[in-house]
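Hello,

Following up on my earlier ticket. Below are the two sequence lines again, exactly as submitted.
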Amino acid sequence: MNALTDGIASLLDIQVLIGMIMGLGLGFLVGAFPGITATMAVALASGFTLTLEPVQGLAVLLTIYVAANFGDRVPAILVNTPGTPASIATTLDGYPMAKQGRAGLALTISAIVSAIGILASLVVFAAAAIPIATIARDYFKSPELFALVVFGLTVMISISSKSILKGVLAGLFGLALGTVGVFPATGDQRLTFGSLDLWEGFNFIAVIIGLFGIAELFDQLLTHHKSKIRPISSLGRWWPNKAELKQIRRPLGVSGLVGLGVGLIPAAGGDIAGLIGWDRAKRISKHPEEFGKGSIEGITASDTASSATLGGSLTTTMALGVPGDSVMAIMIGSMMIWGIAPGPDLFTRRPDLVVSITGIMLIATVLSLGLSLVRMKGMVKLLDLPHHYLWSAILIFCIIGTYATTNSLYTVGTMMVFGVIGVLMKRTGFPAGPVVLGLLLGPLAEENLARTLTILPTKPFIDVISPITIALLLLSLLSLVLPIIRRHRQARAERSTTLAEALLDRDAAQARTPDDAPSASKK
Amino acid sequence: MSHQNDVVPPGAVPALPDADDAPTPSGGHDAAQPSRKLEIIAASVAVVVMTTFLVLVLQIDLRREADAGQMDARFWPTVLGGLGLTIALWRLIVALTQTPDERDDLERLQVGGVTRLLASLALVVGYMAIWELRTFVMFGYNFNLFVFITPLLLLGLLLIYGARSWKALVFFPLVSTAFIYLLFGMLLRIPL
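Thanks for your patience. The regenerated structure is below:
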């Protein structure tokens, strides 16, 4: 059998279908509840999928990933609160449309263009994954792989951090956590303090559930207050007419390309693509003044761009082993536990997986679109569900999910500790993404650096450190330095604007003084 | 447009400069204020963590020294610790000398929030301590502790989170525990 039939055959399994249905429900739910991200849901679900076959587990996790991308548009449109960061840009035109009594139309257009965005990105994945993996396999040896890890980490730091220094510290903290355990090359124990539980390092699932699930929950406990905003209940008409369908064509094309491009950048996700896509569509629109005021073009652009990142993220994750976004970082962890190492070798050894993953994503997208169009009215009611149910359920499922990975309460304790660390990091502006990436990729970086240092004395420098390595390391440096320079420039520009305004105010005051003086003296 | 008052939900990234003229979502957001004290404390903790890591790493016992040009078990963690300590000190200087970072992507702490969090933590720690015992014997029978303490944990959490109806306090804990026990304990055979 060839890869195509193998890949399709692995999908013809009742457990895959059951997994997808569960993933669909869970993905929609987490997407619809503001503050509960797809990352958190995938982290939580990864605890339960470890005992499944890889394709069955991927069916659950990928379906959550896709379905959350549909569900998160509901609160963005109806309550002006993004269900996940990927739908931030949806609020820009979605909520104004809802206020105008066109919520149903906004929800329908959002679902349709999201599906188109994901399907387009799947074409990119299906077409590009194997060639990219082949190029990477042929040209990426230890030095290039080390540089690629550094590049992935620095891109995530630059994107996820307001402060680059905090992002770098978070990344180093993650890399430091990755050193705990037995050093495979020599068998030396590092920072295990004689504990058998630490021999294999920190349990990855416990760490990610702690940092993304528990920390998010704790933050909600700290900051929750009763919202005065009620979901908009008057949904209006659902189906777009011909003129409205015509309006979506141009922003669909432009923002789709933006999403596909952003998706291929490691660590850049739908949140960034949505905002860039919205901005680009506005620039080419015949009616840019309508953007932000309930424009159909606006909601089309934001949702197409953010959804079109999914295939790109998947491509960099599976073909290069560098996570496309935080959900993909968790996916890599789960796949490693299943004995599949994402990276250049994966698709050359298992090309059937490209077919299986594409099939899962395709079915998940079609099911999510169907559910979106049929069940939107029911989703609106979910927004009224009291928080006490949600919080209690999340906490107990995080506990049980983590316990199920090792059947040990030590793992649950690890999760709770990282939950506390995660909420402290969140409140102080340290991003969790680089920690997870550092923990995940740290051993890979160390292993490849060790190999490079071993080879280096035996060959000429330029034979070992290739132009690809140098380019990747330079790009890593730029991704850290450029945001710092840009922020300094912005701060300087703001300072000079403030100074200019102060000088203008002073001049104006001085100009007024001759007129004011007599009146003042009269008093 | 400045992002000073931009409203972004928890976990979201701030708006890009390209989208400067974009209106922002609201959703009842009550943004946290910048705090120099918090920045200094966070940077100091980072310095302590990285120093401790570096000290511990330098004490790693090596079973054998690495060959020339090769890495031993200490090399990589030492590089990370040294780099981490340098960056943490740099961050401390920044925290001491520059204006604190904006925190408009975070919500402000609410009254009772810390109590809610600490009470939840205390309950979970207590729950884990009792669950560690696994079983108890009564009237000569061995009972699984999990099925008794899980509804109690959920009841406690629901009370802390403000639930007061009998449906929430009785029905939800019992149904949830039964579901978890059936799914994980019986179907997936996880030793709860």
